[in-house]
Amino acid sequence: MSRSNGNIQSQKFLSRPAVQATLAALLCIVVGLLIGYIALLIISPAGATQAIITILKNYFTYPSKAAAMKYLGNTLVKAAPLLMCALSIQFCYQAGLFNIGAAGQYVAGAGAALFCALALHMPWIVCLLAALIAGGIFGIIVGLLKSYLNVNEVISGIMLNWIGLYTVNMLLSGVKEVASPYTVNVATENPGALLPSFGLDKLFSNNKYVTIAIPLAVLIAILLKIVLSKTVFGYEIKATGIAKDAAKYSGMKEKRNVITTLFIGGALAGLGAAFLFLSGYEQWSVTQSSVPSMGFNGIAATFLGGLDPIGTIFASYFIQHITSGGSYLDKNIYPSQISDFISAIIIYLCGFVLIFKLYLNNYLGVKEEKAKEKTTASANKEEGGNK
Amino acid sequence: MILLLQYTLLFASVLILVALGGCFSEHSGVINLGLEGIMVMGALGGALTLKYISPDLPALLIVLAVLVAAILSGMIYSVLLAVACINLKADQTLVGTALNMLAAAAATVIVKSINIAENPDNVSSNVQYVQTKKALVVSMGSFQFNWFMLVALIVLIAAYVVLYKTRFGLRLMACGEHPQAADSVGINVYKMRWAGVLISGMLAGIGGIVYITAGVSEWKFEVGVAGFGFLALAVMIFGQWKPLNIGLAALLFGFFRALSNVYSGFDFLAALNIPGSVYNMMPYIISLIVLAFTSSSSRAPKAEGIPYDKGSR
């Protein structure tokens, strides 16, 4: 009796959506890592095991705790913008929009933040707002094209990614270092534009790049979770995503919702860029000829996170963790892009999550029915015996 | 001027090939957003063939070997899309995007590993094919004819004939318009969609190798193919999913892309002193404008993007 009770309980546990999402994500990660490991084995079997451990260990490779904390800080510094990009894609996906333009909105945000910081010498709060607006405008363009002219948001997003890249390259070539293609250092040119850290850097062995960006990104994720699950606006967005025509029929302004959603999505990605570039961690190269991968990695993080803001926090950290881990590989044996390879495999596998859940639920359903049949059958038997 | 014409034809060839690939896939009912990734894979297969093949072989043989390699790598890679989107009914947008990222990462990893194996200090993602690339072109005065221009033309005509004049083509299009109806008259929708995706893999694979051999004799695989797969999708939409219109649209887009390569050769354009970035942006801006005007009266296949489920009504 107790055994079957336990069975039923475990089944109930398995049919909870959050549990299923976590299970699916873990499965994707394990398979993704396995394929990555196989790739490493093919490249050079001797050090493959060590290499995959290096990727997974990331900053733990440093023996001293202080150094590990410092590099944990670095990973977090890059995880914050990744989280913002992931949230951007996720928020739009709720409305049925695939915001691949997050990469371009991120670029626009970076351009605006750095231009305000370096050319106009604005304080950080203004730079942050500029990034938000610039990203948002890029989102609005996609939204307008989508809702009024029926342009597929994926294609217009990609086009805007490239337009954004070349525009920002042009915009920032006025504030680049003389001898290099990189923009001048924010810390030396305009320290007032650096995001404040309020002592957070002390926690990470005085890692000066650790700023309020990190807690802010997490807060925004939580805020989005609340907006999506508790507000009318969130409900309307989800309704538009599930059935556009039904939403329109029941009086929701679906065009306005699409545009607002993409504005918010763009603003999130733009802010993400400001979170990175206003920490001084990275400088923009005005000769770069490919769109930064942050926006695309956001897709990985958001789907790995089960399309849930809270799950996305962990997923973003994980994706950034292995990406940073990849840079510790011995460059003369293994390419560091093996991490990107693993992330890409994980996204591909995320495509199967839906079918995985379907099978799992079917399986659980069958089991439940069988269990029911059993109990009713045994109950009938007992009844018969009593008579 | 001749240079501009040459590049226009070259880039138009790429766009024709890839856009027709997308066209076959979408007519069968599958949106192929992974064209960009398939191009990278085709480019990789072709580039590695160019790298290892002996330059002393007859030119025709080299061209054929490169074509076969590009076709095979493109087709094999497109299987990943077909399995996920047709049989497992995954989200086509997500899988297409994943394939783009996977191709860029995988190609970089493969090329870097090969380079490192040859020389541990060479950590670049470049493949060089200076000698063998010469086999692909025939000089006619100052115009360099590329064999792939001919391939693109043949494919264009073939695509028209196959789609409108053969039983296979008409059945394929039926699966993209109304798969249930097609199924009811005995057409195997899954098979047709597989065919559509594999053809798109084949054509996009060729497109990839044409793109990376256009005017350069080495390629850095870290940069992928710079959104060309998506430009091809814009060409396809502008061409309203019809092969001949796609051909014309590709010429227009090819022209603007070519301009960014050769603008400095024109005195009056150079005199305008417009930064190079503007020319680089041009094809993307044009396509955005074109899309804005053509998308609202779109003739997209009606059932594209919806996984076909035999059991559903």
Count of the separate structural domains of chain A: 1
Average pLDDT rating of chain B:
87
**CATH arch. level architecture of chain A:** Orthogonal Bundle
* Count of domains of chain B: 1
Helix content of chain A: over 70%
Question: Could you spell the SSE succession of chain B in H and E letters?
Answer: HHHHEHEEHHHHEHHHH
Descriptive report:
The complex is a heterodimer of chains A (387) and B (313). Chain A has helices at 2-14, 17-43, 48-57, 65-94, 102-119, 124-149, 153-172, 186-189, 200-203, 213-230, 232-242, 244-249, 254-277, 294-304, 309-326, 338-350, 353-386. Chain A has a single domain (78-367), classed as ABC transporter involved in vitamin B12 uptake, BtuC. Chain A is built from 17 helices and no strands. Chain B has one domain (2-225). In chain B, strand 2 and strand 3 form a beta hairpin. In chain B, helix 2 packs parallel to helix 4 (92-118) and helix 2 crosses helix 10 (228-238). A two-stranded antiparallel ribbon of chain B has the order 1-4. Helices cover 71% and strands 4% of the residues of chain B. Chain B has helices at 2-28, 35-52, 59-87, 92-118, 130-133, 147-165, 167-177, 179-184, 189-212, 228-238, 243-262, 267-272, 276-294, and strands spanning 126-128, 137-140, 143-146, 218-220. The longest helix of chain B is centred in the first third of the chain and has 29 residues, at 59-87. The mean pLDDT of chain B is 87. Chain B has 313 residues and is mainly alpha-helical. The interface between A and B is large, with 47 and 51 residues.
